[in-house]
Hints:
Elements: H1 5-27, H2 29-40, H3 44-60, H4 62-72, H5 74-94, H6 98-111, H7 115-126, H8 132-149, H9 152-157, H10 163-184, H11 197-208, H12 211-241, H13 247-277, H14 282-301, H15 308-318, H16 324-332, H17 338-364, H18 377-405
Helix pairs in contact: 1-7, 1-8, 1-10, 2-12, 3-6, 3-17, 4-5, 4-17, 5-6, 5-7, 5-10, 7-8, 7-17, 8-13, 12-13, 12-14, 12-15, 12-17, 12-18, 13-14, 13-15, 14-15, 14-16, 14-18, 17-18
Amino acid sequence: MPLPPAMHLRIxxxxxxxxxxxxxxxxxxxxxxxxxxxxxxxxxxxxxxxxSAYFLAFAIAQLPLGILLDRYGPRRVxxxxxxxxxxxxxxxxxxxxxxxLLLGRGLIGLGVAACLMAAFKxxxxxxxxxxxxxxxxxxxxxxxxxxLAATAPVELALQVTDWRGVFLVLxxxxxxxxxxxxxxxxxxxxxxxxESLRQQLAGVGxxxxxxxxxxxTPWAVSAQATxxxxxxxxxxxxxxxxGGLGRLAVANALLGVSLAMIAGYxxxxxxxxxxxxxxxxxxxxxxxxxxxxxxxQLPLFMQWRSPAVLLWLLFGFFGTACILPYAxxxxxxxxxxxxxxxxxxxxxxxxxxxxxxxxxxxMVGQWPExxxxxxxxxxxxxxxxxxxxxxxxxxxxxWLSASRSRPAGKAAA
Length: 413
C-alpha cells in the first residue's frame, strides 16, 4: 500500500537535514583553508590530514554502524551519533592546537557517519526496490545543498564572524537536527533486526566474500574517493593556484560546482529509475556516469586553465554517478543486509577518501610555495594523475569482472 505524503515527509525530511549538515561539514574546509593555514600555520600535508580526519573517523565507524542500523534502526542510531558531531564542532571551534582540531574533526566525522547510510537503510525499509535509485538520488540532492551552503554563503558569513564562529553555529544546528530525527522519524513495525551478533557478523563476512560486491566496488571506491577528497578540500586551492582565481571567485566557482552536484544527483537518480523501468540495470548507468567522470579529470590533470571553472562544473555533475553503486548493491543483496552492504562499501570509500585527501596534500607539499603564497601546480598534477590512474584500474577490473560473469548471449549489466 502506498505511503501517504505526510509519511514520506516524516521519513525523508529529517534524514535530508542530517545529510545536509554532513556534506556541509565535509566540504567547508575548501573555503576555510586559507584561514586555517593563516591562523594555524600548517603546511599542505597537515591541512590535508586535518581535513581528512573526518574521513578516517567516518570510515572506522562504518562496519559497527551497519550492524547497529540493522539491529536498532536508523532513527535511534543517527540521532545518537549526531550528538557526537555537535560536540566535535564545538571542540573544533574552541581548539588552539592541531591535536584538538584533529579530535574535533574526528568527532564530527564519527557523528555524521550515519547520515547517508541511515537514510538508505530507512528508504530500503519503507520504499519499493525499484524506487531506491531515485529516492537515494533525491537524498543526495540534500547533500549537494549542504555543499552549496559551504561555499559562497560561508564566505559571506566570514564577513561577520570567523571560522570559529561558523563551527559554533554548526554545532547548534547539529543538535537541533538530532532532536528532530529522534522525535519525527517513525520506526517501521518489525523493522529492528532479530539476528544475534554472531549472525550479523556472518552477514558481514558473506558480503565481503561476495563476487557481486567486489565486481563494482574497486571502481566505485576509487571514483568516490577522488570526488570526496577534491570537492571537500583541494578544488578550492586548485582554482586559486592553477586556475588563477581570487578568493571570492573561488567561492563562487565552488558554489557553481555545488549546483552542478545537485543537478547531477537528481539527474542520475531520475535516469537510473527511468531506465530501470525499461529493463536497463542501474549498474550500466553507474558505469557510464563514472566513465564520463574519469574523462572530465583528464583536462584537469593537463591543467587547462581557460575552461577551468567549466571543467569543475562537469566534475561536480558527473561525479554524482559514483553514488549509484550503493543502490546497485542494495538491489543485489537481501533487505536484512542493506545496512551492512552500504556501510561495507562506505568503509572502503572513506578509507580511500582519507588516503586520497591526505595524499594529495603530501604530493602538493613536495614542491615549494610560489611567490604569491600558493602551491606549485605540478603538485596538483601528480596528485590528480595518481587518482585518475587508480580509477582507470578500477574501471578495467569492473569490465573484466562483468565479462567473466556475463551469461552467454547476454549483455553485461
